[in-house]
Amino acid sequence: MKILEKRSECPISLSLDLFGDKWSLLIIRDLVFKGYHFYNEFLDSGEGIATNVLSDRLKKLEHHGFITSEKYHLQKTKKLYQLTEKGIELIPIIVEMMAWGFKNDDTIFIPEESTAIVDRIRNDKESFINEVTTSVRNFDSKNFC
Fold it and tell me: Contact, 137 vs 144, CB < 8 A?
C-alpha cells in the first residue's frame, strides 16, 4: 500500500483521497445499505468492478481504518468485512449523496418497495440516518436501497 500523498491541507481534498473514488464509495454503500460482508457479494453487486480493483479498494479502505476484515468463522477461507466507527461516520455523507441523486435525477428507477425509503430521506433524513447507523452497528444491515 503506497503512502497517501496529500495534494493540499484542504479537508475536502483529504477526504476524497481517502474514500472518494467511486469504487470505495460503492463498497461502503454495499456494506451500509445492502448488508454485504463478503468479497463475492461486492464483486456481484452490479456495477462490474474488476477483481483487482475490488481487492485494491478493500485493502485501501482497511488500511485507512474505514473497514476491518477477519476470517469468517464458518468458512476460514472467506474474509468478513465490516465498517469501523470511522466508516460508520460516512453514513450521513452517503445519505446526503442519495438525497441529492434523487432530487437531481428524475430518471432514477425507484422500485415500489423503495418509495417509502425515498420519502423518508426527503422528509425525515435524520431518523433514517439514525436507523441505518443503528442497523450497521448491530450488524443487522437491511437492504435500504
Answer: no
